[in-house]
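Shift notes (night). Ran DUF1501 domain-containing protein while the centrifuge was going.
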Amino acid sequence: FLSLGGLTLPQLLQARAEAGAVAKKTSVIYIELTGGPTQFETYDPKPEAPSEYRGPFGTIKTNLPGVHFSELMKEQAKVADKLAIIRSIHHSSSSHDTSSHLTQTGYYKIGRKGGKNSFPAIASTTAMLKGANGPGVPPYVSIARAMRNGRSSFLGNAYDPFIADGDPNKDDFEVNNLDLLPELALQRVNDRKGLLNALDENRRLVDNTRTAESIGKFNGQAFDLLTGDRARKAFNISEE
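Came back to this:
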């Protein structure tokens, strides 16, 4: 066999395959500060700009030379070298809804303001392309309610967020729809799943839209959530 540096070609190919197979499972927490402070009051105070542009607060140095934050960001300034501050993002819309749609999807909104997003949110796209980090957990979760412009659009409802409603700060907080009803046995759920799978197969034969695909994914996700314990553990705040 061909060799390079003492390694044969099969060994090189095997090493490449193993390196590609080891993928780090990454989770992203996205916080949308709807109606929150401006960049001038936080990470981009522009201390050299005229007073009408630079905002009402003073600035402080960070642990990065030449980088200043608002005087209100003292703790953040200590870890500026651990942050990726992007100051070049901008848009040409004066509408909160349209600009929010741009940051969520990468596109300006088409259609009426306040309606559903015209293009898929980045989290929905990630859910479709990457899926969940493991079986029994949803790939995309939205806390309390769905974010504005945070839905799947034309990708299909299967890639909408799993909404963990309620107030996580309450002592009795729990996420709904993660347990079987007391009167519903696991065998009965398995029987229903088999019947639904058969019906979905028939639907796919006559339906060339994403409806059948979404329904099938819904059923699979629901079954995994109800019969597994990974999601319950993930949402158990007492274990944090």
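The chain is about 35% helix and 5% strand. Residues 1-7 have pLDDT under 50 and may be disordered.
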